[in-house]
Model the fold of this input.
Amino acid sequence: MLKYFLLQIVGVIPHPPLIFAAYELMRQWVFLVVTFTVWGFYALIRALQEKHVTEIRFDKLRIVHNNAQLSPHFTLNLIGDISAKSLKYSPELFDDLNHFITILRYAYLDNDKFNSLASEIEALFSYLHGQKIRFGEDFYVKEKIDPELLNFDDLYMPKLLLITLIENVFKHGIFQDPKMPVSIEAKMWYGEENSPVFNFSTQNKISEGLPLEKTGFGIETVRNLLDYFFQNARLTTSTNGAVFSLNLTIPYAKSNQTWPDR
Done:
């Protein structure tokens, strides 16, 4: 009733007290109904959104569960058994399957564990073998990868780092031109105090006018890995007309504290 008396003080003559009280009760009732209705719709929308998110999470969990049902060991053992049987009928098929097993086993490795340069080179050999199978006579690559690199199992190399650089060639480069084959080289040389220095380089033809960043898919990620795991690694890229070149140098002077434990 305070509102009623205040209106009288300012000179506004309201309805009689009982009618005024009835109007006020009705107004407040309408306000409460509208407020609760709005909040009800809001709560319903939030509930539906949360239900949708929960369903998506459940679907993802179901996918992960289904994928985990076939363990890596089972898959590798099965393909290994098939590979062993194939030797009787086709040594070439046996060799192809073994390269496939090498890539598959390497892909299953834990990224947080120590990965050696030798393992990366072995996987790289198998990856290139797989590309030869895919493209056959349209595969023009000159590789000069020193087999001695397979002996450096005490030096660290982030998993799939070199393969990422090679995959970049096949995604964005031209490797079907016999006049300009892709060049891939990898070797180890020795610098000051006889410390090993790893060198990796590629050169390939690209389409005229293709921007450098289009040829460098994944290179920034590789740079970030190099900066984290190696102190003085150097990765350079350049284009000269229709030719893209990449050069990577990693001095292995000493172990880096960022290397995972063996």
In short: The longest strand covers residues 196-205.
